[in-house]
């Protein structure tokens, strides 16, 4: 029996107006492998956070504070918080 | 008593010794500061040196910004303490919101290690007063996340307020409006991507000839003589 854990995803992407040289490099590489249909690539980060004893009522707000303060630099990045429901990967973990 | 210039060492800092050496070279007393200590040991100015603090994990400077020493430095900088952030130190100052903008990956994704020519645009800060306005200085860069970006409104404000400290004469990395360094409104907090502490003497600096013009290895020295003068006259 493990401690109940809630899982929250934080996806961080460079803002649309910020040039993404890494995404561009991937975009240039894909056609060399025959993937000719790619017209744009943006590269981002995903944080998978497991929160112990998290209050479901404040889970999202807590994750947003973490993203605001540390996970994203909101000068250049946007973030999106996704709280996984019981049917997802939340619940007890070994 | 000589002015005391503190240099912070974070885990992953590379250029603390060079910054301490530059402080000593101009006659200041170099003081090593440790990231875990909030105590600034009565320094009169602080250099946040280059390197890869915390491995640049997450984003360059993002984790260092929350170290104990930065709590004190952020408060002190808002109170007027002169702070110079070089390279990774500039990134830390941006993450701490003491300076605007952010640094992203160089345009060509390359790590660029090269001597570049800067034009000093703002010689009214505590760290640049020994330059002539518009002076050119040859100083090395060595980074991969060196491309300064900010939204157009912020860039316009930086230019209008004369807070662009230095620009690249030939932009090496795609930095917005060729910006190599900026200052805060008060002029005590300065961030610079190139490394003046690597251009303080002929032997180790970028001495040589560019287009038949003799370049000394000491073009970075005025950052350190400037701060010393401003501290002595303060």
Q: Could you describe the 3D structure shown?
A:
The complex is a heterodimer of chains A (94) and B (234). In chain A, 23% of the residues lie in helices and 28% in strands. Chain A is α+β, with helices and mostly antiparallel strands and 94 residues long. Chain A has a domain at 5-18 and 44-83: Phosphoribosylformylglycinamidine synthase subunit PurS (Mth169, Chain: A), CATH 3.30.1280. The model of chain A is unreliable at 90-94 (pLDDT under 50). By secondary structure, chain B is of the alpha/beta class. Chain B has one domain (4-233): 3-Layer(aba) Sandwich (Rossmann fold), CATH 3.40.50.880. Chain B is 22% helix and 27% strand. The mean pLDDT of chain B is 95.
Write down the overall mean pLDDT of chain B. 95
Give unreliable regions of chain B as ranges.
Answer: none
CATH class placement of chain B: Alpha Beta
Spatial ordering of strands, largest sheet of chain A: 2-1-3
**CATH topology annotation of chain B:** Rossmann fold
The CATH topology of the domain at 5-18 and 44-83 in chain A comes to Mth169, Chain: A
Domain count of chain B, please report it: 1
Overall radius of gyration of chain B: 16 Å
Count of helical stretches of chain A = 2
Strand content of chain B: 25-35%
Radius of gyration of chain A: 17 Å
Helices and strands, with pairings:
The complex is a heterodimer of chains A (94) and B (234).
Chain A lengths: L4 E10 L6 H9 L14 E9 L6 H13 L5 E7 L11
Antiparallel strand pairs in A: 1-2, 1-3
Chain B lengths: L3 E6 L6 H10 L3 E6 L10 E4 L19 H11 L4 E4 L1 H8 L6 E3 L7 E9 L15 E8 L3 E3 L2 H9 L3 E5 L10 E5 L5 E4 L15 E3 L2 E3 L5 H13 L1
